[in-house]
Amino acid sequence: MGKIHLLDDPTINRIAAGEVVERPASVVKELLENSLDAGATRIDIRIQGGGKRFIQVRDDGCGMDRDDAVLSIERHATSKLEDDADLQEVRTLGFRGEALPSIAAVSRFILRTAAEDGAGTEIEIHSGRIHEIREGGFPRGTTIEVDRLFYNVPARRKFMRTDGTETAHIVRIVSRYALARPDVGFSLEQAGRKLVEASTACDPPTRVRQVLGGEAAERMIQFDTGPGPVRAHGFAGRPTHALAGRDRQHLFVNGRAVADRVMAHAVAEAYGNTIPRGRFPAVVLFLEVDGSLVDVNVHPQKTEVRFQQSSMIHERIRGGLRSALSDQGMVPRLDQLRPVVAEDRTERDVSPSPYSVFEPATGFPDRPSETAPPPVGARALAQYRDSYIVAQDREGLLVVDQHAAHERVIFEKFMAEADKNNVQVQRLLFPRMLELSPSEFVTLEAEHDEFRRLGFLIEPFGGTTVRLDAVPAHAAEADPEDLVHELLGDAAEVKSSATAAEGLRYRLVTTAACKAAIKINHPLDGAGMQALLNDLYQVENLTTCPHGRPALFRLTLDEIEKAFRRR
Fold it and tell me: Which HAMAP family match (predicted)?
């Protein structure tokens, strides 16, 4: 008997499911795309247990008659392609014909559909096999229920993450398609609570406010490169509100949510060096391109695309976005740059010379302790450009980046308190009401205990609004609203599991220290500079900030004397 044989249909479907259905969010994505392709104007999603226990997607699209309903659960059955030529210019979101049979193969699956009110079909499937087909009276549209996802594939089920993590992935999927289709109403509900509620909007700015929240929308500018074979348009966040992760970068090609390197690189190039390394601006970018210039059939989950003229598309995005940012004064153009001379000082350059020696202080947030005696030779001499401390020790001269040094000091003190569960908090004089995005709200729910251990007293206040009552004392000088948004962005990038708890704490404390540390272009008096040096010399690693950037360097006496040819 030969070694090669044909696989049976259930095994084939489970293999296909491994490619199409990675996690509950994959199911929601596939069903959402089918609903949109069916012309739905309203899509309602209900989940339980982060989608692991139950998913229901209901739409008011065109629906199906009995024959089409039965065909829809067969592999490679689709209404979206007629022949091979249609693959050259795919305009629909789904087209492979694998989603429904793949999902049904790894769950208890029910499809209810009707092409017109009253006359409908219900199909129940267990592990890819039809259990029962029933007639019923349903409203026009389609409802699909997915119960106990991966119940028959325990190896895959045990690799799913916590309910909070899986819910966050679903929120991001629903939010992205809500951004792409402001003409369609979306809702996402879990345990009776609405996580996303986006009613049909008249214009994209309204939808951005619905999905990302009013505060985030106010910080973004609208841009549009205009009509043509390639059109880039959307909303761009200000560089000052860039976050540590890409969670707020939403990229679309012809209405399809994608993760594309060409587009992401074009966005990064547009912002240039206005954003620190490791930070990413909030961007909602829609790319409309002729179907012949893009191949969407390069990935089973259709999350990647391939462009025929990638350099042209890259330049279209970069140039259009950079122009919009420049018009807002966010990115200076070459002709706007000019040298600063002594007679032409701006408000930020108020010192009478490039350096100051013990100039009067204008404030020092979270000033380091002045009680510790200064280590021998580590003595502050001057401040250069209100940003760098010039000091001396026994070996020579020191140049200290005051922001990086203070960041290291705050980090060490904050982390020591956090590890002992003894973080000192600073009560706000007036509680702050923060409007979070659905994704941020889910992240906060999942990591609420860790935020509380770090000194953030945050409580729900209705919907996705929360009340902030206190912050850690070490971060008291940072803007509390910006800090919370920044930390929630960080938390979304860290896996919520027991093994990742230490990494999450390090990430949050690092960001808090950076936000609270004294900034560059901030004048210090002699006492303030000396106090910072004293505290810096008490920490274990005084050479770098928590991000790994150098905090100081030394020019030895030997090097100085050789430079002046005294040796």
Answer: DNA_mis_repair
Tokens encoding 501: 């708890």
Question: Would you call 206 exposed, middle or buried from its count of C-beta atoms within 10 A (0-12, 13-18, 19+)?
Answer: middle
Longest dimension (CA), the chain: 99
> What distance in Å separates the CA atoms of residue 217 and residue 192, rounded to the nearest whole number?
27
CA dist., res. 55 & res. 513, Å (int): 40
Going by C-beta distance under 8 Å and a sequence separation of 6 or more, which residues neighbour residue 13?
75, 101, 102, 104, 105, 128
Provide the CA 339 distance to its chain's centre, in angstroms.
Answer: 37
| Residues 6+ positions from 327 with CB-CB distance below 8 Å | none
| Environment class of 449 (CB within 10 Å of its CB; exposed 0-12, middle 13-18, buried 19+) | exposed
- For every residue of 306-333, DSSP letters joined together read EETTHHHHHHHHHHHHHHHHHHTTSS--
Strands 396-401 and 552-556, by their bridges, are antiparallel
Q: Are 218 and 182 in contact (CB under 8 A)?
A: no
Count the helices and strands in the chain (H runs, E runs): 17, 23
Integer Cα distance of 207 and 291 in angstroms? 26
Map residue 158 onto helix, strand or coil.
coil
* CATH fold group of domain 355-407+520-563: formyl-coa transferase, domain 3 (3.30.1540)
Phi, psi of 382 (to 5 degrees): -165, 170
Fold of 423-516: Ribosomal Protein S8; Chain: A, domain 1 (3.30.1370)
219-333 sits in which CATH class? Answer: alpha beta
Backbone dihedral angles phi then psi of residue 250, each to the nearest 5 degrees: -120, 115
**What is the model's pTM?**
0.75
Task: Give the tens place of pLDDT for each residue, 344-401.
Answer: 323 333 333 233 333 333 333 344 444 444 444 789 999 999 999 999 988 889 999 9
In DSSP terms, which residues pair with 384 in a beta bridge? 355, 388
Q: What single-letter amino acid sits at 380?
A: A
User: Can you give the residue ranges of every domain in the chain?
Assistant: 9-202, 219-333, 355-407+520-563, 423-516
